[in-house]
Amino acid sequence: MFTQFRNIDTAFKHVKRFTILFIAFLVLVCGLVVWKCFAMVSAANGKIYILANGKALEAVAAERKDNIGVELRDHIKMFHHYFFTLDPDEKVIQRNVTSALYLADESAKKAYDNLKEQGYYTNLISANISQSIDVDSVVLDLDVYPYAFRCYATQGLVRSTSTVSRKLVTEGFLRNVSRSDNNPHGFLIQRWETVSNVDVVEP
Fold first, then answer.
1. pTM (two decimals)
2. Which pLDDT score is estimated for 36?
3. CATH no. for residue 89?
């Protein structure tokens, strides 16, 4: 009879231990499922779809710090594109320079005013010169704010009789500002200056 009681007690302990382990396992599985669901919902909330030319394209939202180098380089390229892409048309010059001045502080405005006073834009119009620019590379220092940069580019001046290439080097700093239609990246170039602008000598 005592043996039977001992067997029942042993069986009860085994069942109790098994039940505790099973419940712990279920709690662990439930915790993993809840965590995975939250992760999937967060990932789904970070995606939007853009309709372009009849096709749905997926766009993924990210923190600004994840893409800050890309955004800074594109901001610098767009500023130089607007400031240095000119045609012999006063309205085109005014439109492009105005777009560039939204992306920089008064240092760019001073450079524009100096060129205007020197008759640079008048000469482009009177001589029918088109000016273009290709940004070769942009060097950034992301360790110190405001972010310092140096831009290396090639300028092209197309005349009716010849084409001249120039190597252009500029530098400055970038700080954060609010995004807008005129400044989609939300940066402002400050203390901008031209370091070098020399003709390329053909060999």
1. 0.69
2. 87
3. 3.10.450.230
